[in-house]
Amino acid sequence: MEVSVLNIKGQETGKKVELNDAIFGIEPNDHVIYLAVKQYLAAQRQGTHKSKERSEIAGSTRKLIRQKGGGGARRGDIKSPVLRGGGRVFGPRPRDYWFKLNKKVKSLARKSALSYKAQQNAIVVVEDFNLDAPKTKAFVEIQKNLNIEGKKLLLVLPGINNNIYLSARNIQRVEVITASSLNTYKVMNANVLVVTEDALKLVDETFNK
Question: Residue 193: in which H helix or E strand, if any?
Answer without folding.
Answer: strand 192-196
